[in-house]
Amino acid sequence: MFKLLVLSCLLALVLPSLAEVGWWRTGQFYQIYPRSYKDSDGDGVGDLNGVTQQLAYLKEIGVTATWLSPIFTSPMADFGYDVADLYNIDPIFGTMADFDALVARAKELDIKIILDFVPNHTSDECEWFIRSENGEEQYKDFYVWHTGKVVNGIRQPPNNWISVFRGSMWTWSEKRQAYYLHQFHAKQPDLNYRNPDVVDAMKEVLRFWLRKGAYGFRIDAVPHVFEVPADADGNWPDEPRNEAVSDPEDYTYLQHVYTTDQPETLELVYAFRDVIEEIDAELGGDDRVLLTEAYSPLETLMQYYGNGTHLGSQIPFNFNLLANIHYNSDAYHYSELIHNWLDNMPEGQVANWVFGNHDQSRIGSRLGADRIDACNMIILGLPGVSVTYQGEETGMTDVYISWEDTVDPQACQSNEQEFERLTRDPVRTPFQWSDEQNAGFSNASVTWLPVASDYKLVNVKKERGVALSHLNIYKQLRALRDEPTLKQGDVTVVAIGPNVLAFKRSLTGQKSYITVININDDVESINLDSVFTSISSQLQYVVVNDKSVRRKNDLTFANSVLLMPKEAVVLSTV
């Protein structure tokens, strides 16, 4: 008999009544990288009209809200994360009229549009920076400037801080005769949030887009927004070495104790939430939301929700699974990471589950293509918010792109030996709609990034017709989320030995649903009766993947569930 090794700490999380919560608390969020979603005008780059054309697909897969990576006017040094005009659409994506049409069509389909908001920096081509560099009184302190220090007659940056994109965090301006700070690319100067005028200016940006019809924002790179305050002489300390890294140009060469996760960051998030509440009161309708991107310690992330007196981000992204689950992770590791969030979440808040985004290797490449369905079962089966990056529902994988063809600045600023570790291009390739030219993404002769070679096998059109395709399994899982048990029910999460993860969703008076995932390559026989209470002696298969020998609606005994290698299923009580 298979020996059950069950984590001693089981979780029973009770969600509030739906009547007391906002739409987002059980929402399905979907990230669109517009450059790669759908090209409507044949230039090889995706655009807003392409997104509008494909909104019906989002409705098909049950998306509640979609957030768009930046679409604002930009010289594209970092593909839109270097914003030159925070109030306009970049021509490569379309016009403001195209944005209005997108919002209108989304409203017809009851899909909410979330915009990417980049508070840490602007482009060096932004009018604010140009005026700051010129020393204009109103803008001279909009950015972080320092004259540097002179060592042996040579002017040098003020300290040793290293950019995320390699090299010094400081770049000299001949015009201003000073260095400006940039935590990322040299064309992305950091705004100075210790200047209240900057805070006010960015709040106005939020108000503008909310009034244009956006239902909230994903806030980019939040931990980088503040640096430690300068001392009485206007200087900042050097950051300590990370002795494990020997490359002095690499971001990880230093421990970033003075340039990330400063306490003022949380106060800024709370101030941005105040704007959300203000516009909710002004415009009415459904709640508007903040999603915050932060790869920060868990105790810091929990404060993003709020502090008891201030509301914060409704959805501080939970990157626990994305960042920490690896190919060889066992069921205990999965369970531990799920518990970490649920057990530490402030009372009354809601969890969110993320396995992919535009900066990280895709699920199928990182964890294995035979675990794609399992990961989608986790994010769609656990309580709270699910977040899907475009293509994870169809099983898209990373595309190899050579050093010569790499365009991601994070990689281009490195070298031929290091670029594969740093490049994000492989996860940003065009969405695979069909087996037609360029996977149905574009009719251009060349696309901005190459289309995956497997597009004739992995695409929406083909998968619609394959019963157990990743897409159809995803759609079944999404449909289950409309069940009261999955919207309001408790959850118990366990690891049954090193190979099997299981969790039960239950609600009084309703069916219980049990997700069971065999993470590895052994055949497993498990006794769910010994793990979960109050389940029927027989269980029914509700969702199966292509590794299963069982079919939907088959029955099994709870005390002897047989799992094939990499099998992932959802069972219900009968």
UniProtKB/TrEMBL annotation:
Enzyme Commission number(s): 3.2.1.20
Signal peptide: 1-19
Glycosyl hydrolase family 13 catalytic domain span: 31-428
Molecular functions per Gene Ontology: alpha-1,4-glucosidase activity
Major enzyme class: hydrolase
InterPro entries (alphabetical): GH (IPR017853), GH13_cat_dom (IPR006047), Glyco_hydro_b (IPR013780), O16G_dom_2 (IPR045857)
Entry annotated with the keyword Hydrolase: yes
GO BP term, example: carbohydrate metabolic process
UniProt keyword list: Glycoprotein, Glycosidase, Hydrolase, Signal
Keyword Metal-binding: no
SUPFAM superfamilies documented for this protein: (Trans)glycosidases
Domain of life: Eukaryota
Catalytic activity: Hydrolysis of terminal, non-reducing (1->4)-linked alpha-D-glucose residues with release of alpha-D-glucose
PANTHER family the record matches: ALPHA-AMYLASE FAMILY MEMBER, MALTASE A2-RELATED
Family: Belongs to the glycosyl hydrolase 13 family.
Protein name: alpha-glucosidase
Gene behind the chain: Mal-A3
